[in-house]
Amino acid sequence: MNLVAKLVAGIVGGTLVGTFAPDILVRLFLTFQQIGGQLIGFAIPLIILFYIASGIASLPKNSGNLLGKTVGLAYGSTIVAGCLAFLAATIVLSGLEPSVAPNVEAQRELTGLVNIEIPAVFGVMTALGLAFLFGIGISVTGSQPLKQFADDGRAIIDLLLAKVIIPMLPIYIAGVFANMGAEGTVFATLKTFGLVLVTAVIVHWIWISIQYVIAGMVSGQSPIRLLKNMIPAYFTALGTMSSAATIPVTLKQTKENGVKEPIANLLSHYVQPFICLVQPLRSCFVQRQ
Asked: Is the pLDDT reported for residue 2 higher than 80?
């Protein structure tokens, strides 16, 4: 079963478990969700540090222009996507009457069987700053020990992603929806925010279609094939609303699209168009309550 099917199965299975299963089974799913969330939070700064540092250090000499264009393109895309989302929210949602979410009494308020905390070594912005500092520093000084350290660290994180985090994502998503099912908020949430969700998904596909058509024209590849390879990242982002949980899948699928490893490693933190589209829509809706 491919990753997309597993993610969909996690959403459906988690909803069914949370709605109909006995408490002990729901709490087991919530335990996996809690541990998975802690592990993802712990790993994300390390992913950013090692992948971006290794990616920048692996770029050819005098590639500052390439680095600037890459980062500028990523951030420029995010700004345009955010503006598109705000415009869509303003046009489509402007007619909504002020309302509040229905007061749904939780069917079951459950917690995981255990509570395990795995604090991150440092924050995301610290990791990003260190990644650029050491990546550019290694590129300038040519320090082979530091480059080897960055490459070895990336290889270790590769194993963590391939063997633990990515296989765990369907269970993590199942835990999210099991929690919503246990609280009885799955269908109420979909009903209340249905228009927002539909608007978000439509804007997603408009924007990513534009992106991948342009990417296909520039690279000479099929936009449909490129976009098909990124579907797992899309479902992960849509299901978790978490850029942190989506980064590992985005990185994996970007490499499957044939992007060179240094560029893929560098972009793994920046290319999150799905999240930056959802958040402005959700924020706009909340402000109208």
From this structure: no
